[in-house]
């Protein structure tokens, strides 16, 4: 039995496209749980006609990247749950099949899929997709942490599958986090001797064309999560992968003769770095500045 969980907020027409694609899968989900923030922003017509869809509404103040997903998984009685976001669309009808296949190995407790760029994706972000989500599968274990650094914990709930029995035995996600709940869980799984599997044939279409300030805020929140859960991230390399991405992206832009995009890449990368470094020092910054810097402003209402 396999269920899908999708947190939503003002999903629009994309939700119907996603639900149709999920119900065309070679392994059809038994239930699709929609955890919707702000009831007035989701119309029944957005999901009408799908008998396996169950909707649960929460308020904006109740949403938390970890707590909301913990709640949704408790609603499911499935052996496996697949977590997705409302803007990730399966690339074919084998997404669920490919996500679940690695669970044949009893030590695999978490799998995540490949994210392909949308048609409107800019060249820099398109390359970032291929850098973070290559065409080759990867099995990650505790022994890989020294070699891979932060990349060992890399995972994305844009499209990820969890073995529920192991999820429960490991205590699920952390109770509350600004985001990065997926990486925190992956770290816990690896440190407890389990395996995390990147399933490159499990593909979704998903990308964003962020500007410098959006990158800044997202990376500020990333820094916050690394500070809040510093016991998880201490002792591993956290910044080298970002530097490697910038260098490789530059080489890629040169190879495709789009060198005019390099200044923008450097500009955006600088803001990413500044955001991340500030986020790691959030607890020494004024409350007003923290809220301005954060992408997830709701998170701070009870924190500061």
Automatic annotation (TrEMBL):
Record-level GO BP terms: single-species biofilm formation
User: GO MF terms on file?
Assistant: transferase activity
Q: Which CDD domains match?
A: Glyco_tranf_GTA_type (cd00761)
Origin: domain of life: Bacteria
The record's annotation in SUPFAM superfamilies points to:
Nucleotide-diphospho-sugar transferases
Pfam hit, one: Glycos_transf_2
Q: Which UniProt keywords apply?
A: Transferase
Q: Which residues form the Glycosyltransferase 2-like domain?
A: 4-170
Q: What name goes with this protein?
A: Rhamnosyltransferase
Q: Which organism is it from?
A: Parasporobacterium paucivorans DSM 15970
